[in-house]
From TrEMBL:
Coiled coil: none annotated. Signal peptide: none annotated. Residues 61-154 form the Methyltransferase type domain. This is Class I SAM-dependent methyltransferase. GO terms for molecular function: methyltransferase activity. It comes from Chryseobacterium endalhagicum. The keyword Repeat does not apply. Keywords: Methyltransferase, Transferase. GO terms for biological process: methylation. It comes from the Bacteria.
Length: 234
């Protein structure tokens, strides 16, 4: 991993000629991702992010913390005990430089030893699951992170809207696999990461998988095709 996302976060924080990130997927063309988007404060975040941060309580694990904006808000404004977790070394360094007291660079599947009252996976948190055939692995791991009365707050988007429809409303979906399984590529300053697997889930598919792995599932809010879900231990 070249850690291009981390490089962009690092460059922006240190004002070292940052450029916009570029992203693309197997079903979408090149798109600009302004790096300052990763440094938004609470007022600039979308409704789903704000709802999740308002619902966070107790000891918090922020998975896929990125530049640390969610963790920083919970630590500084809500006075919560927060651990920021990300696989990007440079992003975690920036988290620490921004003042996050606990920040760890590690894959969530390798992280262990602590339990939490709230686990956050935001900005399409289901993406980290990679593919449907790995979702059980990730959900079982998430189950081990929770205290008895803990909660997981995770969001995703049903991307069915991105596919063509016929006159009768039927959707043309390419053969093979689940339509939310995508290849995701990041570009920055002329470099490209290798494609990674990224999973967008419709609510019912997430609900079925989570219930099969010992969770009770509650949809907290819907915002067009995106939604926020709370998972708790059965």
């Amino acid at each position: 991993m070249k850690d291009l996302m981390g490089k962009a976060v690092w460059d922006y924080f240190h004002n070292e000629n940052p450029e916009d990130l570029q992203t693309e997927t197997s079903i979408s063309e090149l798109d600009e991702l302004p790096v300052d988007y990763l440094f938004r404060d609470f007022e600039e975040m979308n409704d789903i992010e704000q709802k999740a941060l308002d619902a966070a309580q107790g000891k918090v694990l922020d998975i896929g913390a990125g530049a640390g904006s969610h963790a920083l808000y919970l630590q500084n404004e809500r006075n919560l005990d927060v651990l920021a977790l990300d696989i990007s070394p440079k992003s975690i360094e920036v988290c620490k430089l921004r003042g996050i007291k606990k920040a760890v660079c590690e894959n969530m599947l390798d992280f262990s030893g602590e339990t939490f009252d709230t686990v956050l996976l935001l900005m399409n948190g289901t993406g980290i699951f990679e593919s449907l055939d790995k979702i059980d692995t990730y959900l079982k791991k998430l189950h081990t992170f929770l205290n008895d009365n803990g909660q997981i707050l995770i969001d995703s988007t049903d991307i069915l809207y991105m596919f063509d429809r016929d006159e009768d409303g039927g959707v043309y979906i390419p053969a093979g696999g689940y339509y939310g399984e995508l290849d995701y590529v990041v570009h920055y300053k002329g470099e490209s990461e290798n494609p990674i697997k990224w999973l967008y889930l419709d609510f019912q598919t997430l609900k079925n998988a989570a219930e099969n792995n010992g969770f009770t599932v509650e949809k907290v809010m819907q915002d067009e095709d995106a939604y926020l879900t709370r998972l708790t231990k059965k």
